[in-house]
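Comment thread on ticket #2218

A.B. wrote:
> Attaching the input chain for the structure job we discussed in standup.
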Amino acid sequence: MIVLFKKVLKVFGDKHRNPINRAHAQIHLLVAREAVRRTRGALGPFALIFVVAHQKPKEGECGKIPIDKRAPVASACLLRRYTGLRRNWVAWQQSVCSATMEYSVRQRMSLVLEADSTAEAIGAMRDAEIDHAFLLAHHISPTLLRAAKITPLQLKAHGTKSAAKLAELGFGPLHLLDEAWCAQCVAAYGAPNLLDEFLVTPNDAVVLAASSAITQLGVNLGILLLMCSENPCAAREVLAQYKHVRNVPPETLLETGLRAKDLQPLGYTKERIREDTRATDAQLSMLGF
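C.D. wrote:
> Ran it. Output below, let me know if you need it in another format.
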């Protein structure tokens, strides 16, 4: 990457007759990688040409760096060129994003299997017409949507704007067990919104227990057990999928209604509960040990 920027800066320097310090630019790239990544992500790659050429590294970032006092302020010509490149970059990004969100011909034809419409009619429809209301009206199932490789981001772009609307299409906690699908849902709707919709009942906790979705959604065993409050049967099913109860407060175990007779068959002895949960003698007694 440094070699690439060296060439780009040299071309700009020769074209505009600006004595750009290429060694200075290389040092900046090496000592400020995070700043470069943030700039590229926020403004696009062309912004680096501008930033690297005209920002001076601070002393202390990598020792005393000799700064060329003759390094010029950005010329109006270079600024205009960057602005034009930036405008083209944004337009290209938007066009690619829009094209990616549109349903492909294969995806459209897949909908024919369940839609009350012909292939010709669906093929002739505008992309915007195949929206959330269309999927609901034609009872398109989650199974077909998954088989057609329609992503959550595509659904969101076509009117399925929230996790609640995703549930309207028939999606549930079971679908989040697919690691790739769960990651796409998190990207489209955010983990908190998915939790509000798909981790509501003790049964949801049982379904999600010990799956990759737990990590992606940012929950742990303690939260799953809290969802099973006063439901020892569901709590037992959740615990059966784990090998420990580390960092689970003993109060949480008590709230589930689990007792020694439920915990011991799962391999949770008095000593293990004490070690994992830091339970006191009084709490262990309340658990039936």
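A.B. wrote:
> Thanks. Noting for the ticket: The chain is about 60% helix and 0% strand.
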